[in-house]
Specification:
By secondary structure, the chain is mostly beta strands. The protein folds into two domains: 125 residues, no CATH class; 127 residues. Helices cover 11% and strands 50% of the residues. The strands form four sheets. A nine-stranded mixed beta sheet has the order 4-3-2-1-11-19-18-17-16. A hairpin with a 2-residue loop joins β2 and β3. The longest helix is centred in the C-terminal third of the chain and has 11 residues. It starts with a helix and ends with a strand. This is DUF868 domain-containing protein. It comes from Triticum aestivum (Wheat). InterPro entries: DUF868_pln.
Length: 283
């Protein structure tokens, strides 16, 4: 079986396995963007803990060097609208946010009524949210549009035997509901089932012998590989955590090689590639 950490080496999402005592409501997203015409990775982390909500942003170059990072700490999150200027490679990077009307669906990440943007010398590096702009900030009003794409996402989900989330496996594809179902209590032979929408794409029987594994299926015509590790559900504590990794794009290389040049192939792999790392906690 492929190793989870090696699969995530290019996405910028940390693969650390948290303990139940330290787990918090957290969503971390990595975006492939452009800064001064060069690729960069922007990581946005939304978290919610006992002290309140927090937002952290970091920008890395292709070599992994951190260009800048900032955090709106929980006790300052009451400042729901503002901006922060940072110097990056001799240029000005403006980080703008407006969360004053943000609506949340029980998690740390807003679902509507918000705006977060990174503007570098009047060029939009990343824009998130459904509000058109932070209207009273000139950099936001004059900035050119961006074409950043989400390449990875990590989140925590909680349940008894059913765990749900949604993801878009390519930046031009549609969002799909992902359902993971596994009942490990009251049965001698638990099984694991994963559905994309209403379609079952994975069923693992004799789970006690197959608690780790990987399998490939297709979504929107693209190959998606899922890796699972449910050891702690079966042999750990009653509130154990299982890990699921969904990854598209890595298997696109052979498909694209048939009709694309090397430069086009690299662009398309970036375009289609996406990784979802899901920590599923039993409650």
């Amino acid at each position: 079986m492929r190793d989870l950490a090696s699969c995530l080496s290019q996405t910028g999402v940390q693969v650390a396995h948290p303990s139940s005592s330290s787990a918090q409501s957290m969503v971390q997203c990595a975006y492939l963007a452009r800064l001064r015409g060069k690729s960069c990775r922007v990581t946005v982390t939304w978290s919610k803990a006992a002290m309140g909500q927090a937002l952290a942003i970091a920008v890395h170059d292709p070599s992994g060097r951190c260009l800048c990072k900032t955090e709106i700490k929980p006790w300052l999150f009451s400042k729901r609208k503002g901006s922060k200027a940072m110097e990056v490679d001799g240029g000005a990077l403006d980080i703008l946010w407006d969360l004053s009307s943000a609506k949340f669906a029980g998690g740390p990440e807003p679902v509507q009524g918000y705006y977060v943007a990174l503007i570098f010398d009047l060029e939009a590096v990343l824009v998130l949210g459904d509000m058109p702009r932070v209207g009273d900030h000139k950099a936001s009003s004059d900035a050119l549009p961006c074409d950043a794409a989400m390449i990875a996402r990590k989140e925590h989900t909680y349940g008894k035997k059913v765990y749900c989330t949604k993801a878009r496996f390519s930046d031009i594809g549609q969002h799909h509901h992902i359902t993971i179902e596994c009942d490990t209590s009251g049965t001698k032979d638990p099984s694991l089932e994963i559905r994309i929408g209403k379609k079952r794409v994975l069923q693992v029987k004799r789970l006690a012998w197959n608690f780790r594994g990987n399998q490939m299926f297709y979504v929107d015509g693209l190959p998606v590989e899922v890796l699972w590790d449910v050891h702690d559900w079966l042999f750990g504590s009653s509130n154990g955590c299982a890990v699921f990794l969904f990854q598209s794009g890595r298997s696109m290389e052979k498909f694209l090689a048939r009709s694309c040049s090397q430069d086009e192939k690299e662009r398309q792999v970036h375009r289609f590639g996406f990784t979802l790392l899901l920590h599923a906690w039993k409650v």
